[in-house]
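EI: anyone free to look at a 156-residue chain?
SC: sure, send it
EI:
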Amino acid sequence: MPLVTQQMPGTGPALGAALMPAHAGAEVSNAIGRITAGNMFGAPGGVPGLQNIFGWRVDRQNAPGGTVNLSIQRNGAAAPSTVASVFVPVRYNLAPPPPNAGQGAVDAFHARMRELERTVRRGLEESFVSYAPPAAPPHAGARVISRFEVDGNFSA
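SC: here you go
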């Protein structure tokens, strides 16, 4: 099975409706499009270079062991400020091939990284599309998102 995204059970708290700008779709998509295989893994916190993309940031959140939770969050908003979230197992964080590995190994590595980027971006877009009022809101303006996770094996 190639890399896929699948919805995780339950929902997570999201940015309040009053703080969601009308033009957020293009801005959030722009932030999602800047995520690469080279910047999605690392310590929790803001992803360097992706801290202010039209008022949004890409964060690595605390996640269950062995995964990274990539989130798109609104700058300047108190928690919850998330509008999209995808969990990425760290087993997909591959080291590049050694210099003497040959062009085939280099090409396969780059193909896997592009596949991972597409899959993570798709999961974040799917999560953002799920931004909605909860089935039973605890208060006016509350919103939730579905969280997604990456699963499967590289195609290349």
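EI: The chain has two helices and six strands.
SC: 👍
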